[in-house]
Sequence to fold (159 residues):
Amino acid sequence: MSHLAKEAAITLRSTGGRMTTQRRLILETLESLGGHPTADEVYAVVRRRDEVYAVVRRRDPRLNPSTIYRTLAWLESAGLVSHCHLDAGPAGEHSERYDPVTPVEHHHFVCTVCGQVREFEAPQLEAIKAGFSTEHKVVVEKAALTLYGQCTACKDTRS
Ligand SMILES: [Zn+2]
Ligand SMILES: [Zn+2]
Fold:
């Protein structure tokens, strides 16, 4: 089992839930894909794997896109996965992408030419979060910062 799947199994046990084959497949896929896949990209990979399982177990494939969305939403509510909105890809299309939760909050740089997504940490944001909390008497839970531009390779091609 992958790291993410193991953590999910522990979370599940504490809430009386079960680690189903589908949940495990989705977690393992999310972890192996890396790079902030969309739900559709997760589905494409998981469906192929599920078809293999189905042949082995002599049953019909069980996955459909709504299973993927439901499971991703469940994983998010369990605090194992988060989603971010990134305008990525050559057309700058807006997409919801899934990301395993990391112990330290991270942010994203998106290359608007090739769609590459890079992660970075921004400890400077802690001061903004704390300042806003105090000034507005609210609780800030997280921040999501996305920087857009051209990656090193794309910048060199263009100039
Ligand atoms: Zn990320
Ligand atoms: Zn690029």
